[in-house]
Specification:
15% helix; alpha+beta; 3 strands; cellulose binding; single chain; CBM1 domain-containing protein
Amino acid sequence: MHLSVSTIFLLTLGSFGAALPGHVPRPTTKSTTKVTSTITATSTTTVATPTLTETVIPAPSTPQCGGKNWTGSTTCSKTDYVCFEFNESYSECIHKSQVQKWTVGKPASP
């Protein structure tokens, strides 16, 4: 079989979907399918609540130890506590580490 160049060209165009002379293309139909899906996600989160702690120097059993008209004990029952005179009306048992804090700026006793 002997084919001319123009026939080969037309056959090649036809293989790529080009219309051949006198060729009526057939209608094409497309079918589509719509797919719908639902995804439900569940999440659980656990959060630890921090526990707060504080350090407290316990108060002596008798914090007041002197002052004007005081009739109770004038000594402190806890170790490392001293009777500190805040003013002539009130003295209190305080931890010895706090004496410097309360002494600064306090006038000297006469």
